[in-house]
């Protein structure tokens, strides 16, 4: 037992010594990026899938749990693979050119995005739309910072909020099929289901009656 413990401690010391080697830093950073991508993807997707599944999806408990597990796995795997690809390509480009330049980031992320997130499925679609909204805000701020557009005299956020809500509700009312399924479900619950009730039970307690009245 003591010999086994000594072997484990020796192995741990060897691993720690390896992690301190600067010549292996780029490769180790790629591996840790894969690890962090997997963990972060699971942390983000699991609670979201749990809430959305139990709020809006029908089926047995086993089917719901399977759906949650599948969504969590897909998000975790994709994010881990993307980080691995991105950091690997960044390290390769820096090694080939002897330094890191801004284009490296754009090129590596484009390749990773194509390979990992190129399939049009619900998980990838949600991630891309999440990023798109942040990009639009960031590019707007960058345009002001660089002087490409003048600094607004008043906070433009109220106008942005008004236009976004106006547009999304117009799309929901008249072109609902163009919206993402989870957004359709959310808006149906909020705006359509609130138009229908039969008695106090499905007016205050439940959204829809489950009996045959």
From TrEMBL:
This is PXMP4 protein. It comes from the Eukaryota. InterPro entries: Pmp4. GO terms for cellular component: peroxisomal membrane. Signal peptide: none annotated. PANTHER family: PEROXISOMAL MEMBRANE PROTEIN 4.
């Amino acid at each position: 037992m003591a010999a086994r413990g000594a072997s484990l401690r020796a192995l741990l010391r060897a691993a720690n010594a390896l992690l301190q080697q600067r010549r292996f830093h780029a490769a180790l950073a790629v591996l840790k990026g894969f690890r962090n991508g997997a963990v972060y993807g699971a942390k983000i997707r699991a609670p979201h899938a749990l809430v959305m599944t139990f709020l809006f999806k029908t089926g047995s408990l086993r089917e719901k749990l399977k759906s949650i597990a599948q969504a969590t796995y897909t998000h975790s795997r994709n994010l881990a693979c993307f980080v691995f690809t991105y950091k690997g390509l960044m390290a390769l480009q820096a090694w080939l050119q002897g330094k890191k330049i801004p284009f490296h980031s754009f090129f590596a992320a484009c390749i990773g995005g194509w390979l990992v997130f190129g399939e049009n499925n619900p998980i990838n679609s949600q991630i891309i739309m999440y990023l798109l909204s942040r990009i639009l805000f960031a590019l707007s701020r960058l345009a002001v910072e660089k002087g490409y557009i003048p600094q607004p005299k008043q906070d433009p956020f109220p106008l942005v909020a008004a236009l976004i809500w106006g547009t999304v509700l117009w799309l929901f009312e008249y072109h609902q099929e163009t919206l993402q399924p989870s957004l359709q479900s959310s808006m149906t619950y909020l705006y359509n289901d609130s138009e229908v009730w039969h008695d106090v039970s499905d007016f205050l307690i439940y959204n829809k009656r489950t009996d045959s009245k």
